[in-house]
Design brief:
- By secondary structure, this protein is mainly α.
- It folds into two domains: 3-182 and 298-327, 3-Layer(aba) Sandwich (Rossmann fold); 186-293, Tyrosyl-Transfer RNA Synthetase, CATH 1.10.240.10.
- Helix content is 55%, strand content 7%.
- The strands form two sheets. Strands 1-2-3 form a three-stranded parallel sheet.
- Helix 1 (16-29) links the parallel strand 1 (3-8) and strand 2.
- Helix 7 packs across helix 8.
- The relative contact order is 0.15.
- The protein binds tryptophanyl-5'AMP.
- The site of tryptophanyl-5'AMP has 24 residues, from strand 1, helix 1 and helix 7.
Length: 332
């Protein structure tokens, strides 16, 4: 059986990187797989979250997923903290994964930065919880942006070690699904940094709740270089800012990067930016409108999540029970 699991942190500032790198792909995959999509609030609290904001952001990000086109009847959309199996399996994986494996995780190094001693233990163990999210449902495929690749490799290592240690063939070895022209959307201010929720500059990202004027302004101010636009995908390789903006255009227009280079190669950035802003505004407008509507109807959003939580708990319960038996926990 093929089953998809993917997750998103409910930390606000849902941005174009989340949409193009992940959510849009989820929408495209939802008819071909059984899917679970999770608001990973346990992951969110690995760095400080104001409690009220966490609650509001959980609803907002859920509204974003629904507005983007995820169908809540066919998919299970739910909240991580409301299925206790995530934390239970994560603990077991804390005892399977090795310190050396986690020490290699680049995301921890980036997020903890120079303040490693002051980072939460949860931030360090974050990838084990991520492995638990996926394997709790014995999911086989995980659609994510490029930045999650290393975490999925760790998930595979954990599944393999668990199966080997306990001499079982229980957890699947998951396949990452990283595809499309925008697997790594970069900051609008710096083509060598990814677009992220936590960047101090709001000009670095296009938020899903930005107005048309904000979007146009941010694209106009986006960093570029002095040359005309590159005319081939190879020529983009040396031009990170141009490659990023053209990749965003390609993703929004459902074209390949090569096609966009063919269309705009040799143009000036100012002309291209106008077209990109028009396209982004037009593509995001219907999603934004639906998102606003849903955010005004929290009872509906909560209802979807409640149903999702129940479905997820039903799927997780037998897996956790089986894992407990495999590990040797007495279930009297
Ligand atoms: P998060 O919340 O940071 O991001 C959600 C999804 O958006 C993708 N993404 C991007 N894609 C392209 N360009 C970008 N600039 C960009 N920024 C974010 C991410 O790759 C992700 O797919 N650890 C995960 C959440 C998670 C998870 C899981 C994912 C928890 N458990 C299990 C898959 C399976 C995270 O922090 O995503």
């Amino acid at each position: 059986m093929n089953r998809i699991f993917s997750g998103i942190q409910p930390t606000g500032n849902l941005h174009l990187g989340n949409y193009l790198g992940a959510i849009r792909n989820w929408v495209n995959l939802q008819d071909d797989y059984e899917c679970l999509f999770c608001l990973v609030d346990l992951h969110a609290i690995t760095v400080w979250q104001e409690p009220d904001e966490l609650t509001a952001n959980t609803r907002e990000v859920t509204a974003g997923l629904l507005a983007s086109g995820l169908n809540p009847n066919d998919n299970t959309i739910f909240i991580q903290s409301q299925v206790s199996g995530h934390a239970e399996l994560a603990w077991i994986f804390n005892c399977v994964a090795r310190m050396g494996w986690l020490n290699r995780m680049t995301q921890f190094k980036e997020k903890a930065g120079k303040h490693r001693e002051n980072a939460s233990v949860g931030l360090f163990a974050y990838p084990n919880l991520m492995a638990a999210d996926i394997l709790l449902y014995q999911a086989t495929h995980v659609p994510v942006g490029e930045d999650q690749k290393q975490h999925l490799e760790l998930t595979r290592d954990i599944a393999q070690k668990f199966n080997n240690d306990f001499k079982v063939d229980f957890f699947p070895i998951v396949e990452p699904l990283i595809f499309g022209p925008a697997t790594r959307v970069m900051s609008l201010r710096d083509g060598s940094n990814k677009m992220s929720k936590s960047d101090a500059s709001d000009y670095s990202r296009i938020n899903m709740v930005d107005t048309a004027d904000d979007i146009a302004l941010k694209i106009r101010k986006a960093k570029t270089d002095p040359e005309a636009l590159p005319d081939s995908a190879e020529a983009c390789a040396e031009r990170p800012e141009a490659a990023n903006l053209m990749g965003i255009y390609a993703a929004l227009a459902d074209q390949s990067l090569e096609e966009v280079c063919g269309q705009f190669g040799g143009s000036t950035f100012s002309d291209f930016k106008k077209d990109l802003a028009d396209l982004a505004i037009a593509k995001l407008a219907p999603i934004q409108e639906e998102m606003r509507r849903l955010m005004n109807d929290p009872a509906y959003v909560d209802g979807i999540l409640k149903t999702g939580n129940e479905k997820a708990n039903d799927l997780a319960a037998p897996v956790i029970r089986e894992v407990q038996k495999i590990v040797g926990f007495l279930i009297p």
